[in-house]
Design goal:
Number of helices: 5
GO cellular component, one term: nucleus
Protein name: Transposase
Organism: Trichonephila clavipes
Shape: elongated
Strand content: under 5%
Subcellular location: Nucleus
Order of helices and strands: HHHHH
Length: about 90
């Protein structure tokens, strides 16, 4: 990017990312010599793998069960989107 004389905006357009993301990646590259994500980055898990399996199993046992009923049955404070994501993953 620097050698070619490209602006952050031009690079962002080429790789279909925001200027902010390109700038952060470039700063990390110049600071650390890598563009890889750090280990442990991202949101922390709210459910264990066992709880994930229990959520999926509830739907297989009773397909009419609602997300609210699943949340109550798991006993962990999770948002409905977490349940939907787990169910989508289980289908694939």
């Amino acid at each position: 990017m620097e050698n070619a004389g490209w602006s952050t905006r031009r690079v962002a357009g080429q790789v279909n990312r925001s200027e902010y993301a390109v700038r952060n990646c470039w700063e990390q590259w110049t600071r650390e010599g890598t563009h890889e994500r750090k280990t442990g980055s991202g949101a922390t898990r709210k459910t264990t793998r066992r709880e994930d399996r229990r959520i999926v199993r509830q739907v297989f046992v009773d397909p009419t069960v609602t997300r609210s009923m699943i949340r109550a049955g798991v006993g962990v404070a999770i948002v409905p989107q977490t349940i939907s994501r787990l169910l989508r993953r289980s289908k694939s």
